[in-house]
Amino acid sequence: MQQVQTNKLGKRLKNSRYISGFDGIRALAVVGVIIYHLLPYKLQGGYLGVPTFFAVSGYLITDLLLQEWEQNGRIDFWGFYARRLKRLYPALVFMLVGTGTYITLFQRSLLTNLRSIITTNMLYVYNWWEIAHGQSYFDRFNGESP
After folding, report:
1. What positions belong to coiled-coil segments (predicted)?
2. Angle at CA of residue 51, ends 91 and 80, nearest 5°
3. Is the C-alpha dihedral spanning 57, 63, 65, 67 positive or negative?
């Protein structure tokens, strides 16, 4: 295990734990999910990349929190969530702008509820919004029951 740590600017320093193999596992999980969305009949188990990604990410985040606890005797949860938001939000906004633009230009039939979908995604509550409206994410990818 290589020792790497980040400073306040996110630059890696040399004395904390970093396991590069986990980046590869997460990358494979993401690729599996992307292929599953694009070609669901070619990689039917691609959705399993989601729990794989979350399990590995959960381990890594827990390791970071344990390091913070060992170094400071406490965990700064506000700082933790601010760092998560700073890291994840730009990619989310980019994806929503790109998807919204594509739908507006090429898939106008999908414009129904676009504002609600974008808003709930920006607030990280989209799955709850779908549940409240009687929709199921997985129904889109399943065929008819036998």
Report:
1. none
2. 50
3. negative
pLDDT of residue 2: 47
Which residue shows structure tokens 């994840």? 88
C-alpha span between 47 and 49 (Å, rounded): 5
pLDDT digits (tens, 9 = 90+) for 5-55: 555 555 554 555 777 888 889 899 999 999 988 888 888 888 888 899 899
The residue behind tokens 């506000």 is 78
Phi, psi (degrees; rounded to nearest 5) at 45: -95, 15
Instruction: Give me 26's structure tokens.
Output: 């997460």
State how far the Cα of 14 lies from the Cα of 4, in Å rounded to an integer.
4
Residue 1: pLDDT over 60: no
10 DSSP 8-state letter: S
User: What contacts 120, CB < 8 A, 6 or more positions away?
Assistant: 126, 128, 129
Rounded Cα gap, residues 128 and 130, in angstroms: 5
Per the listing, tokens 């599953």 go with: 36
